[in-house]
Amino acid sequence: MTVLSLKNVYKSFGAVEVLKDINIEVEEGEFVVFVGPSGCGKSTLLRIIAGLEDATSGEVNIGGIVVNTTPPSKRGIAMVFQSYALYPHLNVRGNMSLALKQEGHSKAKIASRITEASRMLNLEDYLDRYPSELSGGQRQRVAIGRAIVRQPKLFLFDEPLSNLDAALRMNTRLEIANLHQQLGTSIVYVTHDQTEAMTLADKIVVLRAGRVEQIGSPMELYNNPVNQFVAGFLGSPSMNFLPAETVTPGDTRTLGIRPEDLVLSAEGPIQATVQHVEHLGGDTNVIAMTGDKQITARFFGQHDLPAGQEVALGFAQEKARYFDANGMRQA
Amino acid sequence: MSQARTNPFNSAAMHGALILYTLIALFPVFIILINSFKSRKFIFREPLALPNAESFSLIGYQTVMKQGDFFLYFQNSMIVTVASLFFILLFGAMAAFALSEYRFRGNMILGLYLALGIMVPIRIGTVAILEMMVSTGLVNTLWALILVYTAQGLPLAVFILTEFMRQVSDDLKNAARVDGLSEYTIFFRLVLPLVRPALATVAVFNMIPIWNDLWFPLILAPAEETKTLTLGSQVFIGQFVTDWNAVLSALSMAILPVLLLYVIFSRQLIRGLTSGAVK
Lengths: 331, 279
Ligand SMILES: Nc1ncnc2c1ncn2[C@@H]1O[C@H](COP(=O)(O)OP(=O)(O)OP(=O)(O)O)[C@@H](O)[C@H]1O
Ligand SMILES: [Mg+2]
What we know:
The structure holds 2 protein chains of 2 kinds.
Chain A: E1 2-13, E2 16-27, E3 31-35, H1 42-50, E4 57-62, E5 65-66, E6 77-80, H2 92-103, H3 107-120, H4 136-148, E7 154-158, H5 166-183, E8 186-190, H6 194-200, E9 203-208, E10 211-216, H7 218-223, H8 228-233, E11 240-243, E12 254-257, E13 263-264, E14 270-279, E15 283-290, E16 293-300, E17 310-314, E18 321-323
Parallel strand pairs in A: 3-8, 3-9, 6-7, 7-8
Antiparallel strand pairs in A: 1-2, 1-4, 4-5, 9-10, 11-12, 12-18, 13-17, 14-15, 14-17, 15-16
Chain B: H1 2-6, H2 8-36, H3 40-45, H4 59-66, H5 70-101, H6 107-119, H7 126-136, H8 142-166, H9 170-178, H10 183-194, H11 196-212, H12 215-220, H13 229-233, H14 244-270
Helix pairs in contact in B: 2-14, 4-14, 5-8, 5-11, 6-8, 8-11, 9-10, 11-14
The complex binds adenosine-5'-triphosphate and magnesium ion.
């Protein structure tokens, strides 16, 4: 069943068109991630789904019902915000129960849902604390708990991890993945972090300047980007782009090759000078210059390459991607 | 920076400066208080001396109690001040919430129009206000004063509160909307407590001028039963003789309620409530 479908959604603030012709479907149980650079309209799109913002035109359909004029609380969604947004005057229990009280559930039902959610999120010991008495990670878990207790048709997450430090971010990411597995509820998740997108998503939606660039599974987008933007946005370090004539004289296209697809090979078509080497232990990133273009190669294992050394780099032809002058994929 | 703050010498200097300032600020109040307990002769002979067995006298307080209905004046002042503050804060906060929260046509213009009142003194309109009060039959009622003071306080209140409400996290309000709270609940339960320090600031700014005002009580409500404390105290200040005992006693008593209100509001000023709400 389709939980969410957006049809031809447009949004303008005054004369500025922020979202253009958005068409997205989210199936039952699917984890969908919106990624894109800052300011591309991810949050705005999420707010339109939540009902916090009205679409200028187009249709928002949740669970088979057109909800364009339905208030947020009646849409069957729950949302987790970047800044946690906990109610400062309520303790953890109060924060989690507020929405259920508004919906008029019985005391017993509210209590059992809170018990269940706090067990899942390891919040049992904190139920009587106020938000100011919790750490950042705990606050984020409370915010997630507040969403879970409502048992919505669809969860909305707006960059929930960006206020956490690196270690906590990774833990919470795993926790969210686990929760998704246990609950089986559809999730729409906004981030500008492509690692989060790749690791969490069943389906990624890449946005740029208010348009959908491509929709697909992480590996589909990684292996078959429709254009240069998607190719460059996913993957870290990102894909190298070179004029194709460096390799094949007379070719006017742009060649795209991922760092891990480059190999050291004596006859390799790319001649480059090593500039800098990053030793990651398991991997080695070599940043080199070919002509006036910077190129990054990622080699498995440890390699000692002094700066200034000339290297020849090669690649398998089937790994190469070609883009035309407009950035569209050629082959 | 932190070293400078913990340095005992700097800390002593800072406290010294603050104590000095406190002494200077409290000195007039102190003089008024001690002299209100002295007989007339000693007020003039030794204004700085504390009352002793010889100079002690309650004559001022006795005069004040006998003359006119002092407690009624007191009550009038209190009603007018508290009611005006209540309306200023309520309507000011509501307008500020609308201006800061909702996008509607003319939002900017309306904000500017409301802020214009800060620059135009309300006393310029005294004649028009008086005519209006006469035709609505509000002359010599406390409502006349409450309405005027509310109007006088609103522009600054809206201006200050709008700025503060802009800073309340959008995520928090949106979370409440997703949870099904009404706009009224969001305003009263979520936003107002978070801008409490700003409310206290506005209240303190408005309280003293209203309590001390002589102009509007004299013009709009000079009747015996609606006299405010400031107006009531004027009977002791004559063109030729001034009953200093009575004036000082009246002033001493007039300080108390303001002090009380100030203590209430300053508690709120200090209590920072936002911590922990948002990252
Ligand atoms: N209330 C508003 N009025 C006018 N323009 C707005 C408003 N809200 C957002 N915008 C504009 O819409 C565009 C998209 O904003 P949005 O917040 O959706 O970006 P985003 O993709 O979430 O970015 P980020 O990753 O930085 O959070 C931005 O260019 C922003 O300036
Ligand atoms: Mg955003």
